[in-house]
């Protein structure tokens, strides 16, 4: 090969010396980012979450070109997108189901972190930023759901904004401020649209902080032990290829729903135009908010219910200190591993309860589930960290693999 | 290193299988990406409800001889002029070789008494004056664009000023003696 540089190479190097754009990406997710060589497929979901954020921004911008944020026109403008705009049905179904799939991958991403102890030192700030992203996502998704101005949009907005009336003394004033009036009305819809457009870009910025914070300690791994330099491989091409394969599988599932069951995860009542005089028989948020909705309704006191609901999210900020075990991966923590799966089941049960009328069995189950969530977080995690005897950790990522191989 | 040696032994010709997989996978991804980009771009094209408004029906019975009306077609004005005999004669006797955009008057009308042209100046899209009786009509008795001074004659042809083309003749047909369907 000739050592002479081509003209293109010289132009590229001239530019890189002044603004190292390619170098920046190469350090972030390229050949210059060493990642542990034992990452499993659960490590795909961070990339998938980033992919969904970009998908939501792309489809959302094109939807906004055809959407009208006015209570008299919003519902019809969405129907026009579905019927008249070229590929409008595709773009809207990608966006509405995209919200669900965004939450699916983010929840798997979070539970991955819980199982493998990715929130523990030295990754606490990385975890905090993740919790901030989750809360921003919930706010964005909630406001996006209001925009079609169907019955569930209107009454969901009414119920959620009324949560703030639980705050003593200033609650009513805060709610009036949120509404820009004395009920959910045109000013509310207008500002929700503005914020729904803004927040994804805020999330994008926070995602950059998330990736930055990831690069200081580097990725955790299924064994939860520090990866020696010899146990790392460059992110590109190894994990870009693995992520690309995972993306292909993910897209098959995502687009199967978009094409063949686009309304499976939505509520049919939202295809009825908002009517401020008639409340639907049951008000149910989208599935990804149901566990928290169940916590809210399990407590027969307005203020305490709201505190419990927001508290269940805010507790995640102190999770790195509630869990007193220094062992990261649940693989080596026999008791925590059981508790983890109980928590997964608990959240699914809470989610089911959130979709039912709060009476009888669902109410009892949601009270047990709410108790268990806080019991798990505040009591079990510190205590188990003290009493549990972990299994012996391998000396390195390579060690157990090499030990298992017969000598040549 | 046993694995590496095995892989090389199986493929003595180099990494052709791997190359094939790389190129086909990249190709499929590129086609898939393009298939996703097209719906996004196409969504910016006119929607079905916009296209369905692409015709306008005009009853010209109410347009008196010598007067002009402006109708809306696809969001832009269209001039409908009921020309007098003098106006028709003025339009027809012009030596078309002197014109910037040479076109005979009969090529621009279906019935000589009714001139139907787009009301959008071919310079930069303003609406020329001349449709109201009190408007300035320019030196050639047609239309006068107030933005940059383009002047059109009684056939809507450009005669003076910066506009490069004659006022466009929209597709239209007479569906009755006095009804016109534009678009």
Give the structure's gist in a few sentences:
The complex is a heterodimer of chains A (408) and B (183). Chain A has 16 helices and two strands.
Biggest sheet, spatial arrangement of strands of chain B: 1-9-8
The named CATH superfamily of the largest domain in chain A: Cytochrome Bc1 Complex, Chain C
Number of domain modules of chain B: 2
Return the CATH architecture of the largest domain in chain A.
Answer: Up-down Bundle
What structural class is derived from the secondary structure elements of chain A? Answer: mainly alpha
**Secondary-structure element series of chain A:** HHEHHHHHHHEHHHHHHH
What does this structure look like?
The complex is a heterodimer of chains A (408) and B (183). By secondary structure, chain A is mainly α. Chain A has 2 domains: 18-283, Cytochrome Bc1 Complex, Chain C (Up-down Bundle), CATH 1.20.810; 287-389, Orthogonal Bundle (Helix Hairpins), CATH 1.10.287. Helix content of chain A is 64%, strand content 1%. Chain A is built from 16 helices and 2 strands. Chain A has helices at residues 7-18, 21-29, 45-64, 74-83, 88-115, 124-146, 151-162, 171-179, 186-215, 235-260, 290-298, 302-314, 319-322, 334-355, 360-387, 398-404, and strands spanning 34-36, 232-234. In chain A, helix 6 (124-146) runs antiparallel to helix 9 and helix 11 runs antiparallel to helix 12 (302-314). Chain B is an alpha+beta fold and 183 residues long. The longest helix of chain B has 27 residues, at 16-42. In chain B, a hairpin with a 6-residue loop joins strand 5 and strand 6 (151-153). Chain B has 4 helices and 9 strands. The N and C termini of chain B lie far apart (74 Å). In chain B, the strands form 3 sheets. Chain B has a 3-stranded antiparallel sheet, with no helix packed on it. A 3-stranded antiparallel sheet of chain B has the order 2-3-4, with no helix packed on it. Chain B has helices at 2-10, 16-42, 48-51, 85-92, and strands at residues 56-59, 68-73, 76-82, 114-118, 141-144, 151-153, 158-160, 172-174, 179-182. Chain B has 2 domains: 2-42; 51-182, Rieske Iron-sulfur Protein (3-layer Sandwich). At the A-B interface, helix 3 and helix 5 of A face helix 2 and helix 3 of B.
């Amino acid at each position: 090969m000739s050592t002479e540089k081509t003209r293109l190479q010289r132009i590229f190097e001239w530019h890189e010396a002044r603004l190292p754009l390619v170098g920046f990406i190469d350090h972030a997710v390229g050949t210059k980012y060493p990642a542990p060589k034992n990452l499993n497929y659960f490590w795909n979901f961070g990339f998938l979450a980033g992919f969904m954020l970009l998908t939501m921004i792309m489809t959302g911008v094109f939807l906004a070109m055809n959407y009208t944020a006015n209570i008299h026109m919003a519902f019809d403008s969405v129907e026009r997108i579905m019927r008249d705009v070229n590929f409008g049905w595709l773009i809207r179904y990608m966006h509405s189901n995209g919200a669900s799939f965004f939450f699916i991958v983010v929840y798997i991403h979070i539970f991955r972190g819980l199982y493998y102890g990715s929130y523990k030192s030295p990754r606490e700030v990385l975890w905090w930023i993740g919790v901030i992203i989750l809360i921003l996502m919930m706010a964005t998704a909630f406001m996006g759901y209001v925009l079609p101005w169907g019955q569930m949009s209107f009454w969901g907005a009414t119920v959620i904004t009324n949560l703030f009336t639980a705050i003593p003394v200033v609650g009513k004033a805060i709610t009036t401020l949120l509404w820009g009036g004395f009920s959910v009305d045109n000013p509310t819809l207008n500002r929700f649209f503005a914020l729904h457009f803004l927040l994804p870009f805020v999330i994008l910025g926070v995602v950059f902080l998330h990736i930055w914070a990831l690069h200081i300690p580097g990725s955790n791994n299924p064994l939860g032990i520090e990866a020696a330099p010899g146990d790392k491989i460059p992110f590109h091409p190894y994990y870009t290829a693995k992520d690309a394969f995972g993306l292909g599988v993910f897209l098959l599932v995502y687009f199967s729903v978009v094409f063949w069951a686009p309304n499976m995860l939505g509520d049919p009542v939202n295809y009825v135009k908002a009517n401020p005089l008639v409340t639907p028989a049951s008000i149910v948020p989208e599935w990804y908010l149901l566990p928290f909705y169940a916590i809210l309704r399990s407590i027969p006191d307005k203020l305490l219910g709201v505190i419990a609901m927001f508290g269940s999210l805010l507790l995640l900020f102190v999770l790195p200190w509630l869990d007193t075990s220094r062992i990261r991966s649940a693989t080596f923590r026999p008791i925590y591993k059981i508790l983890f799966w109980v928590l997964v089941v608990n959240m699914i049960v809470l989610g089911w309860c959130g979709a039912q009328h709060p009476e009888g069995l669902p109410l009892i189950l949601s009270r047990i589930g709410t108790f268990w969530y806080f019991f798990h977080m505040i009591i079990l995690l510190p205590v188990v960290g003290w009493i549990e005897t972990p299994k012996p950790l391998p000396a390195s990522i390579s060690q157990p693999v090499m030990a298992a191989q017969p000598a040549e | 290193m046993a694995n590496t040696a095995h892989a090389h032994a199986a493929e003595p010709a180099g990494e052709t299988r791997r190359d094939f997989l790389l190129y086909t996978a990249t190709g499929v991804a590129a086609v898939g990406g393009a298939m996703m980009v097209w719906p996004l771009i196409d969504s910016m094209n006119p929607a079905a409800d916009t296209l369905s408004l692409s015709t306008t029906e005009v009853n010209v019975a109410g347009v008196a001889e010598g007067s002009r009306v402006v109708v809306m077609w696809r969001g832009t004005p269209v001039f409908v002029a009921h020309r007098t005999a003098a106006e028709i004669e003025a339009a027809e006797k012009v030596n078309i070789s002197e014109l910037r955009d040479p076109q005979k008057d009969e090529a621009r009308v279906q019935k000589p008494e009714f001139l139907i042209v787009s009301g959008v100046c071919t310079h930069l899209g303003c609406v020329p004056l001349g449709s109201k009786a009190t408007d300035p009509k320019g030196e050639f008795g047609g239309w006068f664009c107030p933005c940059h001074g383009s002047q059109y004659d009684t056939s809507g042809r450009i005669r003076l000023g910066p506009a490069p083309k004659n006022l466009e003749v929209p597709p239209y047909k007479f569906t009755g003696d006095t009804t016109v369907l534009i678009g």
